[in-house]
Amino acid sequence: MTPPFDFPGRVLLSGASGVIGSSFVRAAPSHRIHTFPLVRRKPLKENEIEWNPQSSDPVADPSRLEAIDAVLHLSGANVAAHRWTKQYREEIFHSRVDSTRHLVRLLQTLKNPPRLLLCASATGLYGSRGEEILNEDSAPGHGFLAETCQAWEAAAHEARQAGIRVVSLRFGIVLAHDGALAKMLPAFRLGLGARLGNGRQWMSWITLTDLLSALFHILRDDSIAGPVNLTAPQPVTNAEFTRALGRALHRPAILAAPAFALRLALGGMAEEGLLASTRVLPARLLRAGFTFEAPDIATALADLL
Q1: CA atoms lying within 13 Å on the CB side of residue 173
Q2: Which tens digit of pLDDT belongs to each residue from 91-115?
Q3: Strands (E), the chain
Q4: DSSP state of 2
Q5: What is the CA 158 to chain-centroid distance, rounded?
Q6: How many percent of the chain have pLDDT more than 70?
Q7: Residue 87 CB: number of other CB atoms within 10 A?
Q8: Which of 111, 178, 185, 232 has the greatest number of C-beta atoms within 10 Å?
Q9: What's the confidence (pLDDT) of residue 8?
Q10: What is the DSSP annotation of 106-145?
Q11: Which fold has domain 9-239+264-304?
């Protein structure tokens, strides 16, 4: 077993410009953590480290990684940024899997490798499973996202050969002031909020605040390894989420976006994302004694809005 994470600590971070990464960087000092962002441009700050995630030699000066305690790897193309053409599917896959392989191989060459690798994954690994209740021991599902997440996690787990504790962070839908929620709010505030399809598909969500707290919890608890679902303990159907958001904004939310229209407009992203039913529970976090500030959607939306 790897020794407990000793604070203050040094965390190498990819994806630092994203919602989760930038929030982690802001919160880290209060947890006595020093962050070292990996950047694709020339570094502008002393703690930044230049890298090329698609290169087999991703960091020009690997010696800078010798004193790192943990790695938080969040890099990857945004699955919701574009329609899933063949070319963009390849970008989604390779930006995750290849960058992880290259990073892990680099970590394996270090004289003093980090003790922990936290690597992003997603609840998309489970596929669309209807009413089935899923936890970390559930089998993977089918589809492009499921296959991508399986390959992503497999690449990260290779770090165990260097004695590194590996945690695959299976993110649910992250509710934050930025991101998906921000895109929904204008329509809902106009009373034009709509469920997606029949609304019976399950949504596994988590607030950004709880997600960050979970990351710091995992950093401290060396007994946590393998896949961890970063989702709230009370998933909701899309119809329930739509009603809850409407109530929180004191606006009606009675419309529906037909499934066929979503599939026509968005293709695979609609089928495996917006219309997929994934009912996930955070079994490992709960067993580890983690407490959610927003376990239910009403509390989450009240805090955010």
Answers
A1: 23
A2: 999 999 999 999 999 999 999 999 9
A3: 9-14, 33-39, 49-50, 70-73, 116-122, 133-134, 165-171, 173-175, 194-196, 202-203, 205-207, 226-230, 236-237, 255-257, 279-280
A4: P
A5: 20
A6: 97
A7: 9
A8: 232
A9: 62
A10: HHHH-SS--SEEEEEEEGGGG---TT-EE-TTSPP--SHH
A11: Rossmann fold (3.40.50)
C-alpha of 263 from chain center: 24
Q: Give the contacts of 16 (CB within 8 A, at least 6 positions apart).
A: 22, 24, 25, 35, 37, 38, 39, 74
Vertex 167, ends 161 and 172: CA angle to 5°? 150
Find the largest Cα–Cα distance for the chain: 60
The residue among 273, 174, 274 whose CA lies nearest residue 230 is: 174
Partner residues linked to 120 by β-bridges: 169
Structure-block tokens of residue 122: 């997603």
d(CA 224, CA 236): 26
d(CA 252, CA 261): 22
Cα-flanking dihedrals φ and ψ of residue 62, to 5°? -60, -20
Domain ranges for the chain, please list them: 9-239+264-304
Which residues are registered as beta bridge partners of 37? 13
Residues of the chain below pLDDT 70: 1-8
Q: Which amino acid is at 24?
A: F
Q: Which residues pair with 177 in a beta bridge?
A: none
What's the CA gap between 62 and 48, in Å, rounded?
Answer: 13
Label residues 276-296 b or e (16+ Cβ within 10 Å = b): bbbbbbbbbbeebebebebee
